Amino acid sequence: MYAQGLLNASGAASADETPENLARFQARIDAEEKIEARDWMPAAYRKTLIRQISQHAHSEIIGMQPEGNWVTRAPSLRRKASLLAKVQDEGGHGLYLYAAAETLGITREEMQDQLLSGAAKYSSIFNYPTLTWADIGAIGWLVDGAAIMNQIPLCRCSYGPYARAMVRVCKEESFHQRQGYEIMTTLAEGAPEQKAMAQDALNRWWTPSVMMFGPPDTDSIHSDQSMQWKIKRFTNDALRQRFVDATVPQAEYLNLSVPAPDCKWNEATDHYDIGPLDWDDFWKVVKGGGPMNRQRIANRQKADADGAWVREAAIAYAEKHSRRMEAAE
Amino acid sequence: MTAANEGRARLPLWEVFIRPRNGLAHRHVGSVHAGDAEMALMAARDVYTRRGEGRSIWVALASAIAASDPDEKAEMFDPADDKSYRQPTDYNVPEEVGDM
Q: Are the beta carbons of B10 and A312 separated by less than 8 Å?
């Protein structure tokens, strides 16, 4: 759903990273050629992509939990079916992305181990709890909305397998955002209690959603290199502005107010002012101090341990079957 | 916790090809991990055809696919570029004759 801004990226250069090879590689990128899995690439490009794609995949998988929390309590059969389909999509997105990362030479098992040991990062938006049904509306509208803003440029990312995975993901995300906004519309037009619930969800999800684009450009360490490699096409702040400009009018349509008193239309800039953001809180959550960090990982660990016998049985069956086939020949 | 991961069963990688509809060729769409072909087909169906993207699925063990070496791209493909006589535009046909 969303690739967290890169937190550190350093790949040790290999011997063949001569100035000529590096220049030739950059020329391919500048000419908008796609880099494919077995093409030559600098070690740092590979490492940056492995980190970004695996963090993105982990975010999809962990992102199934806050919404899965409401599947059994969805208010109607239609809402339940669509939420279930959405959660299934997120699982699928995780799989496309793990597969894209695997083309760079890391195994899915290694990535899973990094997630389960807590070493890997994922989008910190999923470390907030889903307290009411309205949170499902707010997540679809805001969190998926922000993810789409981020992911559409990734469809043109210089790395072919990642770009192709993102095309599939983006096609599916638009249903996610629309189902979220429909939930918000229903609540906002409903009883006063429902409207209050919608406002409360917006109050809690607004700031974390605006922060999904990562730290301000002034603090985003690896942005320049990623832009040069065309892994990233727009800066964090540019995407954030685009999101706020698109979303504030959608909140106004619902007669809900964005919980940022300084977020107002600015005639001079022709954009909404975003207002101050508390980045200390963002970093606290990124570093594991969010309300749900521990539970999200504990749930994954349990699911992994509980499913181990299924994977083992599948392999044992495949081996037994191939032995029988051999014996029959 | 790592104890649970140690000895994690390694499911082989399968490449997935889907025919969007009859009349079109199967096209590579991605990959899945599965113990055997039957489970790979089931996983491919769930992962890649949730919205009517396909009418037929092929799965092939990734390890069974032989591929050309990108480092030998020049030797492999450049010779085709200087054989313009293989292109229809290399031949002059009088305009009066019309489309050919």
A: no
Backbone angles phi, psi at A87, to 5 degrees: -65, -40
Q: What's the gap in Å between the CA of A255 and the closest CA on chain B?
A: 34
Which residues contact residue B18 at a Cβ distance below 8 angstroms, ignoring those fewer than 6 apart?
Answer: B26, B27, B29, B44, B48, B49, B53, B54, B56, B57, B58
Kind of pairing between the strands at B27-33 and B13-19: antiparallel
Pairing of strands B56-61, B27-33: unpaired
Q: What percent of chain B has pLDDT over 70?
A: 91
At position A316, the amino acid (one-letter code) is A
Q: Is B2 on the interface with A (CB under 8 A)?
A: yes
CB contact under 8 Å between A308 and B32, yes or no, is: no
* CB-CB neighbors (< 8 A) of B11 in chain A: 311, 314-315
Residue in B47, B67, B69 nearest the CB of A92: B47
Please report the pLDDT score of residue A7 as a whole number.
Answer: 36
CA-based max dimension of chain B: 80
How do residues A107-132 score in pLDDT, each as one tens digit? 999 999 999 999 999 999 999 999 99
CB A88 within 8 A of CB B49: no
Residue B73, pLDDT score? 83
Q: Does B33 touch chain A (CB under 8 A)?
A: yes
Asked if B8 is an interface residue toward chain A (Cβ–Cβ < 8 A), one would say: yes
* pLDDT band, very low/low/confident/very high, at B72 (cuts 50, 70, 90): confident
The residue type found at B47 is: V
pLDDT at B48 over 50: yes
Reported pTM: 0.89
Residue ranges of chain A with per-residue pLDDT less than 70? 1-12, 222
Which chain B residue lies closest to A172 (C-alpha atoms)?
B51
Provide the shortest C-alpha distance from residue B29 to chain A (in Å): 9
